């Protein structure tokens, strides 16, 4: 089975079943990462070299295992598809984002705040309706890139080992990639490796969002606003996504009890409930676009 048809199969499995229920391989990996962090970053005293060692111990053996299993005669294709399925979060993204939009539509702001708190790391208990819609829209745009498109990209580049390498690296960035006293040195490698792995996918995602929305505005926002963001990958994705939707994102947000000002993204009105759904449609449309283009190329090159 080609990687293109494997990608279609992996996306189809995710669409039907969503995330594995009861047990997810990333949960077990998270426990491993916690043990490694306690071993190599005791009391937050780990250096960059300790972070590199811990990253290698966490990621490389499992990536090698995925590569070996993918070569099994008769079973390798199943390993490829299941690796992508386990790494994708497309259905899960909708399952977490749509309740936010539904609660806003019903005027239940406390419920909307609670639901959006599952999507973002910022403080949500005092957000107004526009703030909840902004947080939800931003999360869909950014997580669409991280949890969906980048996994697809690395699967198409390198199959099961590629998607395993990416997903584990992205998970370690989420756990270790903080700029605080505990992780600033130890988590440096995890953050930088994740930035490198997301560099090309993020720009393809930004282009996809632009093509599926208000293209000229999205490209202009990408060019002008993305460089203002600290993240080299979230900036293009979210600026292009906000422009494609014609809404204003960014601004003030409270993280860990401290208000942070983030540069503006996009142009237009304050986001509303429907903009969360429109952001999801950008992600769904982008996945359909990628798969359609890949299938056409597969047929033409066959």
UniProtKB/TrEMBL annotation:
Membrane-spanning intervals of the chain: 52-70, 147-166, 282-301
Stored InterPro entries: Cobalamin_biosynth_CobD/CbiB
Keywords, ordered alphabetically: Cell membrane, Cobalamin biosynthesis, Membrane, Transmembrane, Transmembrane helix
Membrane topology: Multi-pass membrane protein
Organism domain of life: Bacteria
Record has Protein transport as a keyword: no
Any single Pfam family the record assigns to this protein: CobD_Cbib
The keyword DNA damage appears for this protein: no
Pathway listed: Cofactor biosynthesis; adenosylcobalamin biosynthesis
Subcellular location: Cell membrane
Function: Converts cobyric acid to cobinamide by the addition of aminopropanol on the F carboxylic group.
NCBIfam families linked: cobal_cbiB
Protein family membership: Belongs to the CobD/CbiB family.
Designated name of the protein: Cobalamin biosynthesis protein CobD
Organism of this sequence: Pseudomonas benzenivorans
Lineage, highest ranks first: Bacteria, Pseudomonadati, Pseudomonadota, Gammaproteobacteria, Pseudomonadales
């Amino acid at each position: 089975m080609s990687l293109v048809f494997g990608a279609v199969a992996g996306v189809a499995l995710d669409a039907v079943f969503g995330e594995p229920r009861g047990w997810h391989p990333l949960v077990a990996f998270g426990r491993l990462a916690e043990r490694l962090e306690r071993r190599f970053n005791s009391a937050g005293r780990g250096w960059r070299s300790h972070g590199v060692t811990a990253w290698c111990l966490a990621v490389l053996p499992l990536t090698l295992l995925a590569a070996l299993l993918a070569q099994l005669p008769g079973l390798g294709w199943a390993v490829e598809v299941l690796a992508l399925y386990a790494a994708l979060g497309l259905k899960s993204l909708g399952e977490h984002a749509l309740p936010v939009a539904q609660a806003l539509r019903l005027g239940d702001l406390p419920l909307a705040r609670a639901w959006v708190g599952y999507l973002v790391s910022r403080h949500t208990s005092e957000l107004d309706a526009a703030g909840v819609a902004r947080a939800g829209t931003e999360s869909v745009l950014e997580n669409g890139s991280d949890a969906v498109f980048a996994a697809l990209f690395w699967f198409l580049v390198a199959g099961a080992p590629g998607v395993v390498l990416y997903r584990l690296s992205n998970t370690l960035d989420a756990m270790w990639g903080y700029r605080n006293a505990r992780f600033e040195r130890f988590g440096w490698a995890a953050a930088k490796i994740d930035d490198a792995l997301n560099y090309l996918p993020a720009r393809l995602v930004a282009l996809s969002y632009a093509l599926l929305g208000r293209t000229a505005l999205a490209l202009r926002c990408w060019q002008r606003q993305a460089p203002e963001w600290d993240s080299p990958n979230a900036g293009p994705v979210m600026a292009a996504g906000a422009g494609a939707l014609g809404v204003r994102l960014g601004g003030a947000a409270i993280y860990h009890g401290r208000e942070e000002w983030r540069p503006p993204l996009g142009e237009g009105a304050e986001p509303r409930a429907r903009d969360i759904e429109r952001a999801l449609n950008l992600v769904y449309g982008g996945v359909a676009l990628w798969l359609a283009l890949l299938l056409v190329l597969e047929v033409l090159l066959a």
